[in-house]
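Might you be able to review the protein record set out just below?
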Amino acid sequence: MGKWTIAILLILPASWTKTTRLNRAIEVAEKSYAEARYEDAAKDHLVLVNEFEQNSPALSFNLGLSHQFATKPDEASTWYDQASQSLDKPLASMAYNQGGVILGDKKEYQAALSKFQSALIQDPTNDVARYNYELLARWLKRDEERKQQEQNKPEPSEFAKRKKAEADRLVEQFRFKDALDLLEDALKQDSTVAAYEDFMSSLKDVVEINEK
């Protein structure tokens, strides 16, 4: 009787195979992100969600980053919103901050400010969020003040417009002080010359520099 053929291949449990495939998928996603291939990184991270049914705030945050750097802000915002619900407060804070950055880029400044504030509520030590919040808050305040000043500026009269045109010609000749004196004298005669207050302030700066 001939020799028996002995099976030499191990039968791996399905769970082991899945774990190996999952680890490999994680490595692929990490590699594509590290190499700044952000569109690939977004796709590779989505594989973890769709094929391996992975679901965690950290994964959502990674998907947010990948989509954001792949210039897909709407998709990134969706993932950041999910990550911001994390019980891990530092992670939630970072997600709120990134969401604020996206809104700021869209010029949705009040909404961005709210995101930065939420980031600080989650983690008061988040210095990046604090910087973004304070910077945007100051800018919004100055912008509001500028708008108020614009609204309060009078409509220049024909006299004021003529004097401004004369001042412009003097500036073209580099006669900055003469231009400033002309407008200051005109302001005494006509209050609507104040419409050119910013221009006069710039002239004052130039005159002061020239006199040093």
